[in-house]
Write a structure and sequence with these properties.
By secondary structure, this protein is mostly helical. The protein is 51% helix and 10% strand. It has a two-stranded antiparallel sheet. Helix 1 packs across helix 2 and helix 1 packs across helix 3. It is elongated, with a radius of gyration of 13 Å.
């Protein structure tokens, strides 16, 4: 089982270019349920995305898209069927800033 994943988030450019930097966070997944792992991934994506896009003119629009893309990417990299199914059944997670 994968013990941790590096969540590399890149901002999604909607109408403006995204910042050049991409932050990373490590999320420990050992011994956690799919719901707990996904919650940790969403929390990490929220932090990383906000760091990447704050100050952008369209940050309010870019932020939710960045979180969704980052969470989906991290879940795909973990490649755990239970986590993938849980993520698919809970697609609309938005974290407000």
């Amino acid at each position: 089982m994968i013990r941790s994943i590096i969540l590399a988030a890149s901002a999604i450019a909607l109408a403006v270019a995204a910042p050049a930097s991409a932050a990373e966070m490590r999320v420990k997944v050992a011994g956690k349920s799919a719901a707990e792992v996904r919650a940790e991934i969403v929390k990490a994506a929220s932090t990383v995305c906000w760091q990447d896009i704050r100050g952008e003119a369209l940050a309010g629009y870019m932020y939710p898209a960045c979180i969704r893309a980052s969470v989906n990417d991290a879940v795909a990299k973990i490649n755990n069927p239970a986590l993938t199914a849980y993520n698919a059944s809970n697609p609309a997670s938005t974290v407000s800033r």
